[in-house]
Amino acid sequence: MDLFEYQGKQLFAEYGLAVPSGEVADTPEQAKAAAEAIGGTVVVKAQVQVGGRGKAGGIKLAATADEAFTEADAILGMDIKGHTVKRLWIEAASDIKKEYYASVTFDRSAKKPLVMLSAMGGMDIEAVAEEHPEALARLHVDPLIGFQPHHGRWLIYHAGIDEPAQKGVLDALTKAYEAFIGLEATLIEINPLIWTADDRVVALDAKVSIDNNALFRHPDLAALKESVTDDEQERMAHERGVTYVKLDGDVGIMGNGAGIVMSSLDVVALAGGKPANFLDAGGGSNAEAVATALEVLLSDPKVKSLMINIFGGITRCDEVAEGLLTALDTLGATLPIVVRLDGTAAEAGRAIIAERAPANVVVEPTMLSAAQRAVELAKEAS
Amino acid sequence: MSILVDENTKLVVQGVTGREGQFHTLRNKAYGTNVVAGVTPGKAGQDVEGIPVFNTVRDAVEATGANTSMIFVPPRFATDAIYESLDAGIDLTIAITEGIPAHDMMRVYTHLGRSDQRLLGPNCPGAISPGKATVGIMPTDVFTPGRVGIVSRSGTLTYQISKEIGDMGIGQSTVVGIGGDPIVGSSFIDVLGMFEADPDTDLVVMVGEIGGDEEERAGEFIAANMTTPVVGYIAGFQAPPGKQMGHAGAIITGSSGTAQGKKDALEALGVRVGTNPTEVAEIVVETLA
User: Fold this and answer.
1) What domain range includes position B159?
2) ipTM score of the complex?
3) Are B94 and B228 in the same domain?
4) Does residue B146 sit in the same domain as residue B229?
5) Pair A273, A309: CB distance under 8 Å
6) Which residue out of A6, A100, A101, A244 is catalytically annotated?
7) Facing residue for A143 by CB, picked from B106, B137, B243
8) Which helix (H) or strand (E) holds A147?
9) What is the pLDDT of residue B236?
């Protein structure tokens, strides 16, 4: 789960990491009030989860509260790379002496936390790593021992952090690591971490991702889930416990098991179509799971055809077929549906559909033929 | 021969009295797996259709000599269950549980490195050596005894590929699900190494997916250390960056972990990669011919 900047900064503050004082605003009026409360020059920042906000005009300085109103009015509703700005973060402007980069990430390759620090902050860190690898100090931490002061010292000396800022950066790294552990984050990224004119070290941005699997231990973070999901189907799927990801095509896809669904998307693309979504109804998909999944798929108006790809293991295909018929009865779907059943009781399942399903439901024998058929039907329907 | 599970497996099931645990334990037993014990705290002295239940894994090991454990405990207790199994000296722990927090797994993995015990999973379907033993949740009907090894990050896709090669008359030595989480106890490389050492495995199918760099690393291992041919498959070409595709580990981070990148890396190292499960089966047949 990726958090917005304002959520990340509020969490940073709880861990004692210095952030500029700020407030959330959803309207120009709120932005103006926030600017008045903060005082002085403020920065109006679009809250979207996409890079390049500044270049797109989503971050503006405002010297007065009235200017904050005007800038907020311009930025709210703006489309930044497909993300609509619905919320702003208004914060005190900072007097920057230098920009650094700091992060703690979950390095799945090394299976350890990775702490990174650079004196070249404020730019794309992947580019820094590529062009100036020596400028990015990287250090793995043993998760059973944790981040020790000597780790911090090594990073500071190797990243070439300016002497007056060293103590502050060391402190920021320690707290970032504490936040990483405490929040069960997979990413804590501060870019830039700034050295200010008055020699403080402050987190000017906050990128925080939380491990979904750990949310059961963090009800406060789990409660943020709603705020970070803005797609209707994704929200609906989340409420119903269905694993769903929205894509931009028109062939709706559902299967049982993450691997087979990913494979289905690929096969649809190979057949010249564009998948509308990823939907895993679960390895042990029963009739009820099929019905719930269908409901989510059918609620998406851009879906023109469906491909249902089931491999019966312990779940029997005849039960899935019955579930599908019941669901179609209730939901009354009219769009073309291509069903492919394989594995346990596949023949019985196919027979049930062939005999009793409405005319818009067709059976195909293989994954490839099902994908081709679904793609053709989507093209015909659009 | 075969790897990981066979007629020498003596299985203890942690979470044996739960609904899923009991269901799959009895299926494993019916297939011929030697299930010697179950563990549920507070239920010592009971039995699950003749399988004795103990309070702790250590008690079960002392009483039955169990050498393999299967974990069916919910995520919030599963990390403790893994440590309990390791502390009881179990050689092979197979964690079926999906949803264990990643930070827990970082610590488990680090701890695991201190011994020569093995962990399969979590979030995995287990392992089956057809005709000998199965530990996990795989549908056993799909598999037949044979000489192809399969190692995979995905359950259903593995069944699909196994059935497709089975339809062409080719069976399996062992089928291993390593799990769909970002950190799992055994990597592709670990399992490929076991297959390489197994005289009864003539070819290995490696089923990968987006996220991480295990497939790329496996490619390097195959090129440097394997004489047994390997056929690859990668799922997730259509996955957008930053979105978790079902499995916690199936996520493209920045520009790393893409299906195309993995396919290219494997092919550059001489591993053939099928574009869909059917083509994988065809390449297997062609390679064995």
Assistant:
1) 139-288
2) 0.92
3) no
4) yes
5) no
6) A101
7) B106
8) none
9) 94
